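ARCHIVE CARD
CATEGORY: sequence design from structure
SOURCE FIELD: tokenized fold
FIELD CONTENT:
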């Protein structure tokens, strides 16, 4: 019997102006996502991933300490507690990317993973942090990830998480595969005119090279403080063959769903023996800090 899992991705624009009080913006986005999670449940989604830093704008386009007020603890903060309730209610695995506070003044760009019974399974902290023009000042807000590349054994599949800029680095994508990921989710905030041409190139390549499914999530719309470009949506699922099997529009709120046949992973790996034929003993340079 085939192992078919219905995956879901939520892409959404900012629900109210980011010029409003920060806590109003946050609550508005949480309220919006509660409705979209309910819609995903009606579509039969079993594993759902939200977009990067889902409960606010992509604030890293500027360097202002006011955004520090968005931080929450994981798993003890109110947003994760709420998502645990929703996961249990809908028997749904939910990946929840938020701004995490570890201790006062030490923060991460993190995604929490909640199982279908509402149990908190763990978290992934974004490893690779852009800090450059035209508006990616992430090292002002986050420390680089410290928890490696975990794979979470959920009720429906073994899943990994890679966040936004991480996707430009194939090393972590490979480690997720070696750690047993069947589906890798990449919640993002990516704008047109910069890396759009890579959006449907890199992640299908990761899927092929590692023999797993990928769910790629992006925002939509124009929002402050990122006023110099448009988030272009086009969230999608791709198969271990690198084929895009479901895709959203580029300009509206949407829930992308796809039936993911996990048996396809073995079929592909039996043909393309990339794990058997890799030569880790020759890759020392990849971990040599002098290169």
């Amino acid at each position: 019997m085939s192992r078919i899992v219905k995956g879901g991705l939520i892409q959404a624009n900012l629900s109210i102006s980011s010029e409003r009080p920060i806590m109003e913006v946050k609550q508005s986005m949480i309220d919006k996502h509660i409705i979209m999670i309910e819609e995903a449940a009606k579509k039969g989604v079993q594993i759902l991933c939200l977009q990067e830093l889902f409960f606010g704008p992509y604030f890293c386009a500027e360097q202002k300490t006011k955004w520090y007020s968005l931080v929450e603890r994981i798993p003890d903060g109110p947003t994760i507690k709420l998502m645990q309730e929703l996961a249990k209610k809908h028997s749904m695995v939910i990946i929840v990317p938020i701004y995490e506070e570890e201790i006062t003044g030490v923060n991460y760009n993190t995604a929490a993973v909640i199982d279908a019974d509402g149990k908190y399974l763990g978290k992934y902290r974004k490893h690779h942090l852009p800090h450059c023009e035209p508006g990616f000042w992430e090292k002002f807000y986050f420390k680089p990830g410290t928890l490696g590349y975990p794979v979470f054994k959920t009720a429906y599949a073994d899943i990994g998480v890679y966040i936004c800029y991480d996707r430009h680095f194939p090393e972590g994508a490979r480690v997720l595969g070696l750690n047993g990921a069947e589906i890798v989710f990449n919640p993002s905030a990516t704008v047109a005119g910069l890396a759009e041409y890579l959006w449907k190139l890199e992640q299908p390549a990761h899927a092929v090279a590692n023999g797993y499914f990928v769910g790629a999530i992006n925002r939509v719309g124009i929002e402050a403080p990122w006023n110099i470009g448009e988030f272009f949506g086009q969230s999608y699922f791709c198969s271990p063959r690198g084929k895009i099997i479901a895709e959203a529009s580029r300009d509206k709120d949407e829930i992308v769903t796809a039936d993911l046949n996990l048996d396809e992973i073995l079929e592909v790996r039996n043909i393309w023996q990339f794990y058997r034929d890799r030569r880790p003993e020759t890759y020392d340079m990849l971990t040599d800090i002098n290169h």
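CARD ANNOTATION: The chain has seven helices and 16 strands. The mean pLDDT is 96.
SHELF: design records, drawer C
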